[in-house]
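Running this now, will post back.
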Amino acid sequence: ISTIGLSASGGEILFDNIRISAASSSPPVAAIPAAAAVVENPPTEEPVVPVALASPTPPADWVRSLDPFFNNHCYDCHDDVVAKGDLDLFNLSTDLSDAETLRRWVRVFDRVKKGEMPPKDKARPEAAAKGEFLAFLESPLVAGHQSQREVVLRRLNRAEYENTINDLFGIDLRLKDTFPADAKKHGFDNNGEGLTLSSELIQLYLNAANQAFDRAIGPSAAPKGTKIGGPIRDYIHDNMYDRWFKLMGDERGTIIYSSEFGAGSQMNLLKIPEAGTYRWRFHVKAFQSEEPVMMQVQTGVLTRQGDKRFVGFFEIPPEGRVVEFTDYMLPGESVYPRPFGTLKNISGFLGPNQGRDRGLTIQDYDGAGLLVERFEVEGPIDEWPPPSRAQLLGDVSLEESGGVEDASEILTRFLPRAFRRPVTDAEIDSYVEQVAQLMDSGRSFEESLRWAITAILCSSDFLFLEEPAGEPGGTIGDFALANRLSYFLWSSMPDEELFELAAAGELGKAEVLRAQTERLLSSDKSRAFTENFAHQWLHLREIDATSPDTTLFPEFDNYLKHSMVRESEEVFERVLAENRSIRSFVDSDWVVINERLAKHYEIPGIEGEAFREVSLPGDSPRGGVMTQGSVLKITANGANTSPVERGVWILENILGIHPPPPPPSIPAVVPDVTGAKTLRQLLAAHRNEERCQSCHELIDPPGFALESFDPVGAWRTEYAFQGTKRMLPVDATGVTDKGQPFRDIHDYKEIMLGEIDQVTYGLAEKLLTFGTGRAMGFSDRKEIHALVADAAATDYGFRDLVHATIQSSIFRQP
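Update: finished.
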């Protein structure tokens, strides 16, 4: 294509089914130099597009323009006869409105751009030919993706539903775990593609709506309340002593030695008589120990495992401390305190006959325990009547018969907040009329209002996020933007300030949107961003997917597991709050740990349960998310490490590279049960197969770099071969797919820091996927690359990236 100038008065040129037009304008339209199409671009930049298609849908024969490049470099392997890799370029569909067809063409584009195709042993295309090919193919791919990238109407996921109900009514109701887990798509459970609706789910919504109404209005009279305290011996059956507990004289308390759950479950301190928030205090000391003893506390119902809630771990020194916490509890629930890391199994000490054959009782045990001197509990401590009643009803009293006008006043205030947008008089009237009909049929005002509230909470306007454009072809409206921003950072509905700015048409202004983003990030409610974005980005929700072999890894316990997850949360929140560089997610000279993790990481001088930032020595392998215990545990199977699994995790979650799944015909690489070969040797043989080579050259190296960490994240220099006593030295060396050698994790981190733009691209892509509820695709690439360039200009500050993500047109498109 030649360089052609177009005058200010306009003009049109047509050739090879490509139309270029210049509309009339004041300054002349700049000529587009053809050479721009052939410049080799850096991996993280988009190729220059020298032409624009006249229509978003290219002609069906557009692919024929690619024939010269295919003839020279592709058809030998990918014609209708050979079709290597099941790719027949002769007959590959050109209907880019089809998702699978688009995916395959994008794969062609990417492999050519990265130099993966043609293969290295084939003739390589000249830079000019490659540039022309990519520049032409890019336009139809952008148009194809734009035609199918609209956000799918998405339902509130269970976390968003719980938070929205609580914010809407001003209550604190645990609902999330009463719903089935939401399906994950593209890494997140708030993606519209995975959020389906069923009749069973509607029934759960009906039940939840009734619970929310009951909690909002509260009990009709003030609770009687409970306030008791004293030694716990009064709440333990006598036959439990000598079996589970040791009684101190003079009512000085009871000692618990066992860290088994049974120890806490036998201490039925109080069966909560009525629902409400209760404040608990335990006066405790470490017993028979010069070091602190850990105390673990749970609340809930013993007989229902899923109903026990984790309260926390508390470090108890020999001189004692008071452990205090509050929890909303239901009738019949109790508290279960116990030591942690002490005697794991009473039977192991007493023997199978509970010590009778040896004359032993628990009184004979001389190890560390937890001395519970006394406890106090009071509650419900909730305000009565609850503020949520006035928030819902205003001045209307349910005890005095309300009328239709009262219902209208309540629903006029409630409905816009429930639907998270302005509502019409007709929408309000439809619910008010139903209340009137129910009351005419003899139902009470409370019953009729309950029906209306329940119907609203089960309607699609409440359960789904509608995100229409403010005007045709434009960005989403201000109310939709308020919702998208709030559900992105809070996983809940907008607050009053966001609603007011949306109503005034101000939220869409860049400076206002930035100020609101900062306000939401600085709120305590942004904890939801950690729990829902960071947990899914780093796969922290999978921490319990496997259980490490207790024989191989006796040091792994619940306290270590909770500490691992907490470290990942603390690092994420610190990088976000202080706008630290995204480089910190790759490597850093600091970690945020407590004593338990410090021992696991072999970092001396750290004491106590509190998490704090700790500077690392220069030779430490820690720092960055890849070497956090949580990630290393999640990417192992409990007994062995897998370079493939860890390599895929790094590619997808840190580098934003998505390797294709192996074809069904290719078996997985598993350890050699005969003990003849190591997994690394098996992978080497696997890579020698032509159909496996390209993927494993990409996947295996980052996994090899992490081989110095065992399945629970501890550092190792050797490992047991296939479960035998034969020990082999760890080999953490490798060569990246780009030919960069590394000796260990230190070298590999340096290589990754050299690819910080790719890391930033991957993180921006995940932020946008989570924020919009849809997968990013080909037409989004250009703007994501622009976000990366902006990040580079501000030294890759993570908080800056979040702001830029929200300001982007992708975030604000329907």
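The longest helix spans residues 127-146. More later if anyone needs it.
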